Amino acid sequence: MFRRYKDYLPLSLLPDDEEGTPYRPQKTDMRRRLLTRGLVLVSVVVNLYFVYSSFTAWPAPLDDYQSLNTHPVVEEKALSFKPPNPRDNAVVTGLYTDAFATAVATLGHTLNVANSSASRLLFYLPDKISKRALCIASVSGWDPIPIERIAPPFSGVHRHFLDQYSKLHLWTLDQRGYESVVYVDADALVRRNFDELFRLPFTFGAVPDVYTTAQGYVTSFNAGVMFLRPDTELYNDMVAKIATARYPAEQAEQAFLNLYFGAEVLRLPYAYNANLAIKKRTPALWDALQDEMRIMHFTMAKPFLQGDYAEVPLNQLERNAEKVARKKPAFKREIVEWLEAWHETRRVYRSKLDKCNALTE
């Protein structure tokens, strides 16, 4: 079958042209081939290096979690102190949209069940929150405090975080006589009492963040749970710098706080801000946290919201939570736990909730 090609010659053996000039490949072609071969060689070497590195690098300890240390996060003897004085210490959460009202109410109920002795303060934006939503959020004991919105200093902020700079008002609570504060995002549940945080001698503490992407476990912290000592002078300094400091705009106040406190923050154990991303990334670590978990943070599944952060009517919360669980089966157990906490909240504060739900504004 190859006989019909017997008279074909490869390009490198082409005969002389009509004038008898021997064929020579162009210098440009030769340089291009040499350059291509060089790039291929460099690419092979680089890829071999990264393959070698992936097999020889140490795994991140938390990605390769092993249940070795079974000692408690807090020494029991260290808990033998008087409960925090509610006039000096407070747990604070925020309400920036009506859609989170039931979450705030449920968070407050779990805080009551954990028997924290600190005050309960609820920051809210008067221009954005209806009387009905504020009433629902407050049924479990939160003391509402209206605050002025701190607008994002520049564009590029994620649309779900546009009001989050208002959180900086936490540092003005010294004007109300508070010496220490624990802030907890509304999309959280309290599992155990965490009053020991009020005894920390530091000025700021937070839990390292976790991502399901290649970033994994990072040194930057999540602003969903924070311990802080209020200081109006520090607040004024932060507000003066949020527009000129360099940090990723999309993550709003969390990115700024990481820049502002990153070198001084006391990094707290994951038990104080059990981000659902931990379960997604390292299920073994999530299981090991169960007995010590103080606060569960619903970062990746919010059973009290529908669609794109839309409010869910009180009588549809159960159905909505079940729907979220079907969409995100990896977090079904945690969503069921939130739903059980909501059922308790509804039962304990039923008469108040019914009155709130009847409000038209």
Automatic annotation (TrEMBL):
The chain crosses the membrane at residues 34-52. The keyword Transmembrane helix applies. This is Glycosyltransferase family 8 protein. It comes from Polyporus arcularius HHB13444. Gene3D superfamilies: Spore Coat Polysaccharide Biosynthesis Protein SpsA, Chain A. PANTHER family: GLYCOGENIN SUBFAMILY MEMBER. The keyword Transmembrane applies. Coiled coil: none annotated. One of its GO terms (molecular function) is glycosyltransferase activity. It comes from the Eukaryota. Keywords: Membrane, Transferase, Transmembrane, Transmembrane helix. The lineage of its organism: Eukaryota, Fungi, Dikarya, Basidiomycota, Agaricomycotina.
